[in-house]
Amino acid sequence: MADLITLSNPFVTASFSPGCGGAVTRLQVAGSSGWVDILRPATAAALVANDPQGMACFTSLPYVSRLYQGRFDYDGATYHLPPNQPPSPHPLHGVIWRRPAEISHIARNKISIRHDVDEADMPYRFGSEQVWTLADYIFHISISVTNRGVKALPYGMGLHPFFRKTERVGVQAGVGAMVANDVAVMPTHLQPLPLECDFSRRLQPLNALPFDNCFTGWSRQCTIIWPDLGVGLVMTATNPFGYFVLCNPADADWFCANPVSHFNDAHNNRIGLAETGLVRLMPGESLYGEITLRFHEL
């Protein structure tokens, strides 16, 4: 387990693991009765093993979610990525989440996290930077990735927070259609949100949202409230985060509300969407996006 790095101000404190991709290990907000965990804190086992699945939040680059069999065709060539979550044959969440990070800058309220990926057997060769900043009740990240390869490739990015699930937590996010999945969480078709759990129009209790899906047409804003904790947040994002993932396992003490640039397996686009959300980057070109969490007391 690598040493953790902590940023803090009187209102927000956040810790990071350089040994686990720069993942967030804990995020707390000052409430009327003390510090409140907003994200599920990293487990002790995850900290020892540098396991991102047990962290509080990680960044996905240069793609998000699952890539079918680790294979895609682009500009007449076929590319392969190795599995990274055995026993699944489908690599997921990109590359950097399982790699140690370089800390390029650190201050009391700001940290810059870099990755350089340049292996002969890796289709994606890139440099990336995550800059996390605290300001009063704000937790902000900017993400950038630059294609350092010799060919154009489709790039994407996302943030994967594990929010605390409490009895009364509620979610609202303006979205369009739902990407329906098969048992392997691969997309099969688009469908409307069921009326009984349409969180795009109003705040819905999380226990009424039985989803593990990506949604199109995200408004780039999501509201989450925890009445039982006395806090809430508004999450906003810039381009390219036009999709939204809600994952709510019935037996977990967490849920995910993820800003992402594209849907699962968008590289293969077997559902035929006109806009996949992936961004073509020529060698030397970059993709950039920002996500902001603004906290408030209820």
TrEMBL record:
InterPro entries: Aldose_1/G6P_1-epimerase, Gal_mutarotase_sf_dom, GH-type_carb-bd. It comes from the Bacteria. GO terms for biological process: carbohydrate metabolic process. GO terms for molecular function: carbohydrate binding; isomerase activity. Pfam families: Aldose_epim. CDD domains: Aldose_epim_Ec_YphB (cd09021). This is Aldose 1-epimerase. It comes from Micavibrio aeruginosavorus.
